[in-house]
Please model this.
Amino acid sequence: MLISGLGLIVGFPLLFLICLLGLFDTGSPFFCQKRVGKDLKPFILWKFRTTHPNAASVATHLANVAEVTRLGGFLRKTKLDELPQLCNVLKGDMSLVGPRPNLYNQFELIEERTNLGIYNVRPGITGLDQVSHM
Model:
């Protein structure tokens, strides 16, 4: 939690800039979505908005590319859209490294992850695989 707090303090100018750009881009810089957390408990995941406000709330890889804004494409490519999740870490809903949180409508994935014990740990901003291949 200390690292996430420091990240929010140090990254504040960048977070503020992205918020301002997001206001001009879509009218609302943040996107909140209910995700599956530790012990299958729901939590609200925060991200910077990368699609138009009326876009369907689906997993990123299923999103309609036409609904992604120009700023959103940049944020996705650079992973800056994930920065607000530092607030989720600070709150205790997530950790920095862990399994990526999934949506509640991904029933097969939830069943598979339950069987593997994935929900015994907090979800992470980034996965172990991404950190291992740096």
